[in-house]
Amino acid sequence: MNFDFSDALKQLRDEARRYLAEHAGAKSARRIIEGGAAYDEALWSGIAAMGWLGANIPEEYGGAGLGPEGLCILAEEVGRALAPIPFSLSAGMATDALLIAGTAQQKAAILPRLAEGTAIGTLAWAEGPGNPRPGAISARFANGRLSGSKVPVPAGHFADFAIVAARADSGFVLVLADLADVRCTRLETLDPSMGQARLDFDNVPAEALEGDGWLTLRMLLDRAAILAAFEQIGGADACLQAAVAYAKERHAFGRPIGSFQAIKHKLADIYIANELARSNAYYGAWALATEAAELPLAAASARVSATEAFHLASKENIQTHGGMGFTWDADCHLFYRRAKHLALTHGSAPHWKDRLVGLLESRNAA
Amino acid sequence: MDFNDTAEEAAFRDEVRGFLAANAARKDLGRPTSRARSIVAAELARAKAWQAKKAAADLAALTWPTRWGGRGASPIFSVIYQQEEEAYAVPRGVFEIGLGMCIPTMMAYATPEQLERHVPPALRGEEIWCQLFSEPSGGSDVAGLRTRCERAGDDWIINGQKIWTSGAQFADFGIIVTRSDPTVPKHEGLTFFFLDMRSPGIEVRPIRQASGASHFNEVFFTDVRVPDSQRLGAVGAGWKVSVTTLMNERLAVGDTPRPDVDDLLELCRHLELDGAPALGNAAVRERIAEWHTRSQGLKLTRFRTMTALSRGQTPGPESSIAKVVNASKLQDIASYGMDLLGAAGMLSDPALAPLHALFQEALLFSPGLRIAGGTDEILRNIIAERVLGLPPDIRVDKDKPFNAVRHG
Predict the structure, then answer these.
(1) With an 8 Å Cβ cutoff, is A230 touching chain B?
(2) Are B383 and A272 a contacting pair at CB < 8 A?
(3) What span, in angstroms and rounded, lies between the C-alpha atoms of B101 and B95?
């Protein structure tokens, strides 16, 4: 039985935790939220220099070749530190799209830039409310040109290219579009440290990726769900640590509030939810690393479990902090915002629960 | 990451599989073993015979020293044994407490002669042990126990009552913690013994549980004489000895209790809800998904614990979540399965109720799981204090003489 990360990866985790505690953390998220910058560019260059953006990019394309487990480890720390950067989006999802379905030319042109952080990629599937399904896509791709609107697009206002879900005469396709000349509107969002935009593609040039578009998108969403789960367990753990620290130090009725069972049991429940989520997320990491047939089910379980854990931890962290927790100056709301943001990316909990049961049904029928 | 055994573990697993295949029958998964029934005499004989076979194959106490019939093995080998045994219909519930808690306490405190006399027959299943800790006024607060022991020459005289004692009705020996001095604070006035369960003055009465079955007993002590030579630990040091016993509580690595998600899926496959397949119902799907992530999360948490054991490390505190999650989940799934059956959910006749009334039995059995071996509330306190490091609750009885504190 070897269901844990290797010592080398744990060392990477410790390094990442130290680096992000210094260069990211609530301070950095707050700077973006209050200052209006799109993302933390200095942090982005910093982690690019550490090689993290190419964690899952093979060495032949300038990456570090750490594989998906390395990416998972880093995603947890990014989530813990509330880093205001599109890490899992660009180093995970956009990178995966090219690795899975990019042409040789696309890979050679873009992967090295993703690895060095000089290009940021995003994935644009949503067209208003709703969860991912082919019928909800109306963007059109024909004769090498893309038309249609996408909203919300994560990092759409500062990404350099997007993988866009569209319809073509041949069916559902994923296309690669450069965003330099695409009309873009930055949108007001719940978590301004994770900015979103509306993109209007008006007959702009785009290139199709290889393979079946819907299958590829489904794979990308499954893989993204696992990375998001790692960000979520990192955030949930940070909330638990914050709540525990506050409950030890804050006194009321002549004693630390952490000595009251009402607080103890609340925090124990967060611990329980976090451990379940962590175990489910680790299974996702294993499935990614081994390209296991169980990957879709592992992804759905990780997604549902981590979404529930971060929701619980972030709301009860505010509650444990009492009135202070509801102030702008306390960091609790930054985690609360990030928890809901992460719960809504890549399809929300009802979507993943339904998908999970569908996967159980087909597994049991087999 | 992988889920593979090391070479040594794989060789051991093969050995266990060979032993089980040659000596036991596989479980019929479509016919779950009832947890609701009490252990009857015929099963006791089967359990003893099975224990003897395990002992003869050196599989009965893998982590014990070879001197006492063990293999001096790492706990990972016990886990592997349990994993393999789970698939077989073998008797359980008779020797776990004795071999898992009583004998290890004896090993820590008894004399070599006493060990020579008691360990081998316990291991071979010839003698059964029980643990006499809980009392009517000392459940979660074990140290609040009131059973008295008083010195009488070379003996001690025990008077009082124990409760929730598993296996007392067929136990040959027991370990007991008693109050020797009520004038000092509760943890300081306890003294620990082992005793012959057939001593004059011991009366065992079965408790009829809410489920109708009887797994536990009340044990009454009226002027029961125990020689001082059977005292374990110093006079007044009984709490320390009790902690040794409780530290030996078996690492919980057992399979998920049933009914679980797969049973619910199986139930749904044959059910309609308001004229449509139950599994097409969004509310049903949502509940199943949530329970799946909990079951799967627990199973994978066990794998994390096993990983630490396999690497020769101490498992992290994550294994402490298993019981508190499992017990409530079982109760909720049992109740929900019956909801799906509508009025027919009331029927608990195994011939009529799906899966031989598994859901109905679990509904009645599961409240006990949330209490036995640490209530949900005590387990949350333990997680909060020992894992998260939160300060202990204020204990109003801590420094007061035991006889100056209100009980019951």
Answers:
(1) no
(2) yes
(3) 10
- Would you call B318 and A364 a contact, using CB atoms and an 8 Å cutoff? no
Examine the domain organization and report whether A277 and A304 are in the same domain.
yes
Contact B105, B114 (CB under 8 A): no
Q: Would you list the DSSP string of B327-387?
A: HHHHHHHHHHHHHHHGGGGG---TTTSHHHHHHHHHHHHHHHHTTTTS-HHHHHHHIIIII
Q: What are the backbone angles phi and psi of residue B237, rounded to the nearest 5°?
A: -105, 20
Same domain for A241 and A358: yes
A1-58 pLDDT, tens per residue? 899 999 999 999 999 999 999 999 999 999 999 998 999 999 999 999 999 999 999 9
| A256:B391 CB<8 A | yes
- Indicate which residues of B carry an active-site annotation: 249
In angstroms, the CA B189 to CA A244 distance is 35
Enumerate domains of chain B plus CATH numbers. 7-94 (no CATH), 129-247 (2.40.110.10), 261-374 (1.20.140.10)
Is residue A316 domain-resident? yes
Domain stop point among A90, A119, A148: A119
Determine phi and psi for B84, rounding to 5 degrees: -70, -40
| DSSP type of residue A127 | B
Identify the domain boundary among A211, A243, A262. A211
Amino acid letter for position A15: E
Asked if B265 is an interface residue toward chain A (Cβ–Cβ < 8 A), one would say yes
Task: With cut-offs at 50, 70 and 90, classify the pLDDT of residue A169.
Answer: very high
Count of domains forming chain A: 3
| Same-domain check for residues A218 and A190 | no
A254 shares a domain with A361: yes
ipTM given for this complex: 0.95
Same domain for A103 and A244, yes or no, is no
- What is the mean predicted confidence (pLDDT) over B209-237? 95
Q: Identify whether residues A268 and A169 lie together within a single domain.
A: no
- In this structure, the answer to whether residues A353 and A247 fall within a common structural domain is yes
Would you tell me how many other CB atoms lie within 10 Å of the CB of residue A62?
Answer: 17
Task: Note down the domain range covering A186.
Answer: 122-211
Report chain A's C-alpha Rg in angstroms: 20
**Are residues A328 and A243 both part of a single domain?**
yes
B261-269 vs B282-310: helix axis angle to the nearest 10? Answer: 150
pLDDT in tens, A326-359: 999 999 999 999 999 999 999 999 999 999 999 9
Asked if A320 and A278 count as a contact pair (C-beta separation under 8 A), the reply is: no
> In chain A, which among 303-342 make CB contacts under 8 A with chain B?
304-305, 308
Q: What distance in Å separates the CA atoms of residue A158 and residue A99, rounded to the nearest whole number?
A: 22
Whether B7 and chain A come into contact, CB under 8 Å, resolves to no
Question: What CATH number does residue A107 fall under?
Answer: 1.10.540.10
Asked if B293's CB is within 8 angstroms of A308's CB, the reply is yes
- How far is C-alpha B363 from the chain's CA centre? 19
Domain of A311: which CATH number?
A: 1.20.140.10
Smallest CA–CA distance, residue B408 to chain A, in Å, is 21
